[in-house]
Task: structure prediction
Amino acid sequence: MDNDVSLTTIIRMPDVFGGNNMDVNMDDNWPTLEAAVDMAASQLRDISAREGAYLIETIRGGKDKIMAKVDEIADRSPVAIEANFAKYRARIEKLLGDTSVDEGRLLQEAAIMSEKYDINEEIVRLRSHFVRMEEIIAEDDMIGKKLDFLIQEMNRETNTIGSKANDTEISRRVVFIKNEIEKIREQVQNLE
Result:
């Protein structure tokens, strides 16, 4: 370590910091300094643009994964409603034993359950949020703030789907979607 130079050694050297060289003319040096600053600013813009493009692609990748799960949920929803009704019917029949079931009343309950567990409206809104996401990305103005708000809405719809569906298969997909939305949120925080 004989060749190491300490900070103390450098500070003790004359003219290293703030020498008395009064013959420096800023007008003569300005073009060089200005060119260096312009080059650094240009490189910073290029790096920022590349990072932004990468973030957008990452966000779109997450969106595609989510949309695939939303499609699966949409396909599963009628099956889940039917399964929930079948469980309800079995419980009623078990409770009534040998007593006959009033089919008319059971159909009314089926309609109520169908409405209670219906998640189509939330699916439509979630899909529309992703369409809006693409519009915001295309606007190229305050993308981060706009997407951050939109992500809150996506979370809200996803939570409602999870609470209304009452189905383990849909719940698994909801958990996946929530994870992906959180990943998108993290990327959005880095956008300007």
Q: What stands out?
A: The first helix runs from residue 7 to 12. The mean pLDDT is 86. The chain has six helices and no strands.
